[in-house]
């Protein structure tokens, strides 16, 4: 039960995007389509899971004072792995996510979980926490990406829903990201209050 | 001419915050008051130019010449993190007044993706060192422009009667969206 709570908190209650407002740059930058949002979400989930595992394993070996730089190096190593793997096996996704893949390093969610959770908890609960928060982040990205793709290009996951003559192009452009996220957060706030 | 294109492109057309979505955290976090927005801009400009120069030299003379280009992400973030520490220590000794003004913003800058973003973009766009410096300065100006504009709007927003559900972050994001729409008017300029 406890572990289930640990896993599921990332979806609504402690959702990194909608509630904690962390990791806003990739959230706004890559969600012009649902598939990009999913790719970014899963890449971040992998980094979160692996860095949480490693940090919880080495937490007693790292001196208190150099803890943050050590965490950053651990995270950067896994980001490089993701970057190289994606370049080799998913070149088109890598191209559309572009700069935001190396920027997972400075995503506050990853460092935040390492510092706030993995450096204090056991291996198993850190791994569960990483997957839970990562999937919550992916959920937020896919939701935002789907809404923008439906409104802005009349498609979802590249399946056409309605004619391109009726789309509002604004939503796949930069302003649409801010506006859709603004309304989504307002809706989530409303749900949480009830 | 080339430099003018870089400057206008980075400040207006591809504004780092509103068009490229880099540095959103400080954009939302410290834009509640105009004075903090200006302080943050100063700190970002300072570190951004320094970091671009140092990462450029590291890429050129260490990573490229040793064939270690795949270590770019790790090397750059380490350089930026230690640079921020160094700047903090030096400022504290040399100019306590400036340290007082920038103080609280400096540690936040390590995780500001605008710094790492501009460093990587300078390499990706294959600029030379001078072009890279111009590009970094222009991006810092663009960051400052967006931040100051947004802080000015938000100071007014506090006094307005916003619908209850939209108060706080949601209305700020929607305002940023409208601001981004205004910046779209510059597209096609270069």
Query: In total, how many beta strands of chain B?
Result: 0
Briefly note the structural class of the backbone of chain B.
mainly alpha
Q: Tally the helices of chain B.
A: 9
Count of alpha and pi helical runs of chain A? 8
Helix content of chain A: 55-70%
Structural class of chain A: mainly alpha
Stretches of chain B where pLDDT is under 50 for at least 5 consecutive residues are none
Q: Tell me roughly what share of residues is in helical segments of chain B.
A: over 70%
- Could you name the ranges of chain A where pLDDT drops below 50 across 5 or more consecutive residues? none
* 3D shape of chain A: globular
Q: Mean pLDDT score of chain A, rounded?
A: 88
Encode the helix/strand succession of chain B as letters. HHHHHHHHH
Query: What's the N-to-C terminus distance of chain A?
Result: 24 Å
What Rg of chain B do the Cα atoms give? 18 Å
Q: Give the strand tally of chain A.
A: 2
What gross morphology of chain B would you assign? globular
Spatial order of the strands forming the largest sheet of chain A: 1-2
Number of domains of chain A: 1
Largest sheet of chain B: none
Task: Describe the model.
Chain A: The complex is composed of six subunits: RnfA, RnfB, RnfC, RnfD, RnfE and RnfG. Chain A: Its EC number is 7.-.-.-. Chain A: It is an enzyme of class 7 (translocase). Chain A: One of its GO terms (biological process) is electron transport chain. Chain A: It is found in: Cell membrane; Endomembrane system. Chain B: This is Ion-translocating oxidoreductase complex subunit A. The complex is a heterodimer of chains A (about 190) and B (about 190). Chain A has about 190 residues and is mainly alpha-helical. Chain A has one domain (about 5-194). In chain A, about 65% of the residues lie in helices and about 0% in strands. A two-stranded antiparallel sheet of chain A has the order 1-2. The longest helix of chain A is centred in the C-terminal third of the chain and has 31 residues, at about 125-155. Chain A is globular and about 60 Å long. The relative contact order of chain A is 0.20. The model of chain A has no long low-confidence stretch (mean pLDDT about 90). Chain B has about 190 residues and is mainly α. Chain B has one domain. Helix content of chain B is about 75%, strand content about 0%. Chain B has 9 helices and no strands. Chain B has helices at about 1-15, 25-30, 35-65, 70-95, 95-100, 105-110, 115-125, 130-155, 170-185. In chain B, helix 3 (about 35-65) packs antiparallel against helix 8 (about 130-155). The radius of gyration of chain B is 18 Å and the shape is globular. The chains are: A mainly alpha (about 190), B mainly alpha (about 190).
